[in-house]
Amino acid sequence: MFESFIELVFKYRPVVFEQGELGFSPPWPAAVAVMAVLAAMGAAVWVYLRPGRAHGWSRTALLGLRLAALAVLLFALLRPVLVVRTVEAQRNVLAVLVDGSRSMAIADLDAKPRSAFVREALGPSGALRTALERRFTIRDFEFSSTARRVADPAAMTFSGTRSYLGRSLQRTADEVAGLPVSGIVLVTDGADTSREPMADAIRALKSAGLPVFAVGLGREALDKDVQIGRVDPPATVLKGATLVAEVVISQSGYAGRIVPLVVEDEGQVVASQDVTLPPDGEPSAVRVRFTLAEPGPRVLSFRVGAQDGEQVTQNNARQALVTVQDRRERVLYVEGEPRFEMKFLRRAAAGDANLQVVMLQRTADRKFLRLDIDAPDDLAGGFPKTRDELFAYRGLVLGSIEASAFTADQQRMIADFVNQRGGGLLALGGRRAFAEGGYAGTAVADVLPVHLDDAKAGAEFVEEIKVSPTRLGQTHVATQIADTETLSAERWASLPALTTVNPVRRVKPGAALLLEGRGASPGAQVVLAYQRYGAGKVLAMPVQDSWMWQMHATIAAEDMTHETLWRRLLRWLVDGVPERVSAAVDRDRVEAGDAVTVTALVRDGGFLGVNDAAVSATVTGPTGEGRDVPMRFIVDRDGEYRASFVAEQDGLYEIAVAAKRGDEAVGTATAFVRAAPDDGEYFDAAMRATLLKRIAEDTGGRFYTAANASSLADDITYLGRGVTVVQEKDLWDMPIVLALLVGLVGGEWFLRRRVGLP
Amino acid sequence: MKTPLAVAFGVSAAIAAGAAAIPQAPPEPQGTVRLPSIQFPPAQQGPQPMLPGQGERRSMPPFMGLERDRGDAANLEPGQLPYDGRFMFARLRYVQGVPASELGGGRFGRRGFGRGQGPPWSHDYPRAERNFMKILDEITTIAPYTGPVGGAIVDIGSPDLMKFPVSYMAEAGYWTQTDEEAANLRAYLTKGGFIIFDDFRGGDWSNFEAQMKRVLPDVRMVELDISHPIFHAFFDVATLDFVQFYGRSEKALFIGAYEDNDPSKRLLFIANYNNDVGEYWEFSDTGWTPIDLSNEAYKLGVNYIVYALTH
Fold first, then answer.
1. Strand order from edge to edge, sheet including A284-291
2. Mind telling me how many Å the CA of A417 is from chain B's nearest CA?
């Protein structure tokens, strides 16, 4: 609209003015024209300044109008021109690169699919193709994972599962290298599913001097769409664990609607939660909770049903691969005095087949009761004296046992258990714990998430506290004690009070507080705090009788709150704790034909990286055939080995990593990767104008939409590279010049009549 | 404090050798449930009404040729001890004067004040627990309440019972309860409580069994043998041939019941049938009983407590 108006008034489109330089090319000596006009101006001044002709403002206005008209006349007499460089017709090649991916089938262009524009405008008789062919030699390309030549864009099937924009632009530039090329016309919705930075491609195009004229198809915001933007379940969970996955939902056109969010485990619904859709364009994070009972790799689907009139339904579901492990997590619980806290913790854990809490109960000086041990001589010497022995556990619980029960080396080992081994440490309250147990200033105190205040509580200090979750604790997986957050909050409010003998009030910077308690003394008591420390995490729970949540008179016999809390706490304690050998893939989902990089970490018993191990990966694909892939030590990091393989076909790949050191087996680990068609381009499926504008502007091209693409051919004439000529475009005959002359002279005549002049 | 406990400290010295060594892992519970091989004598008396507040003292029977005296009557209402999280001996009190219509059977005819030494639930109170807690404090790391009243007295129907997951009942042959009290005890045991029944014998069994059936209708009581972990939780008890106080001749039996009647699970209670370890605890500091026998009684008590605190 604006461009048409400019062309109507100024004869040429704005691009001509932007590209051209103003000049004058008078057909007669310029001095003659100037002298003639100056003479006319002098005459006008003499006439209007004579006494009695006019007075005051009217005289000034009349004189001004006359002089302006003469100035416009002088401009026209000097024959102004625009000197502009244009591409020479039929001497240049123009590459037309069309997006061939599935997202082009989205129908958001006046209810027609985006691909309809390609068929209509770029087909053999399309208006845009005709206009372009009039000036250029066209080379057609389509792209998905890369660019390739096509004979007829109108015959494209738009079935590509990837949109690698940057790589495809570079490939197109390579294809036309050496030819006089005016530029690349990029016809796409802007979806880019590659993980490569666009800046590299833009830099290459700029250095090749190739402007990109991007035609963005589709709407910048979909009218009606619901999208699962992101899901982030943990990669590995323990069988039976309750997962809390954060699901980011965005939408347009359905604000406030309540829809069910369904989680499916291989087709079986494991959770369904009603979600109120957020306002248009505002992503909302929803926490959904579910339990996975089947071990092994599980493909989870997070889905919101298709809504009426929704434009893109493929982005209503996201999939994620979660490996469910069915193993017993070994946790060592060291308790300095027989007490109910240990008894009830042990009872709670006993009901969980995936937890093995090994009890080392000191019953007298240097006398220990060992429970739930694997072998008769396990812990026969009391608390482990070597790192290998301690690091065999994945979690460590310190009960009411004074610091002096451990040697200085054992205290350092406990700190290293967290820092170096990556284990989970939980410090419980009691008369021999925290500052009261003499831990201040020890290596253990360094890793704790709380400050051990200098003053120890007196022997008689005991305070009853009412426990409540903090804002973080209300949603944290470890402190969820009922099926929903609302029920959990209600349950917390109804639990009986506990007591503490360890006045712990301050968490360290970087630590998070999940539960706090309030009693008679001012301030809040820390009830559950945690922090990451080195490779592991540390929890502090300075209360002495959480067993009240099992035994108290207000708790029903069949109530499972205490069991649920402790199982979740212990599972969380050991969640993510590494084994001596661990394996990971660079992404859990690839397309068939993609390379997968496997990284393995191999550590010795003290969890120091082992660089001289023989590490191999056995890759078993969907056909069941295994192949061995040797893994090589990466020098950058101790104990890290890497290999890559190609996932040739769709399906699940199991990568079993085994490490040996000499004849000794160090350990094994398993990772999974899934090869499946990528649906990434359906997400954020609106046309990405920002990206396309950036590509066009950075390379010297222009950005268009389907509505204004008709001016493309004209614009490339002025903006394109290749074989060009210099042209002069006359400006004296612009409609604006005539309009100005008529307007100024007419205005003077009208004013003269108004003031009574002839 | 040391004087009355001189004998008891002798006990701890005698068992110190056992305490120093780290024992092997206790054996798993026996895999089969066996019913106790007990022959119960017939009840000897018919029902008799109970007299609330009745409490005349009895004369003590001779023991091993010694005449004994318990000293002044104990204050049976010592008041509430504040809960501070420490282990505290909890003595169960069953209410006197439950109407006969509310009794669930058994030997209610013998309810009352037993042999004239105060209400049956209070027998050996407070000296038994006072001595026992001092021994427990001396030889283990439990650090229990060791104050003058020995521990708490808790009504079997009281919500406060839940604050004491280990409790002790004396004279289980006189145990009576209302339905509400039975329900409270059921919740207690189901949630994780553990009861030591002591000081009952012979025909007392029928009352004990009847009352226990009211608490746990599906309970299957079994006789425990020496291989059970409870006899090795702290001390390795060598034999269950326990010499009874007063030279009684019935064979002491150790009866228990498992959670869900599953021998792989914890014991809900242990009953010292034909037995009275509390009596040994009470008199261990008097010189009336041989140290060896007091020793065995303390060993059982300590093992019970450690087992209950860890299982």
1. A225-231, A242-252, A284-291
2. 25
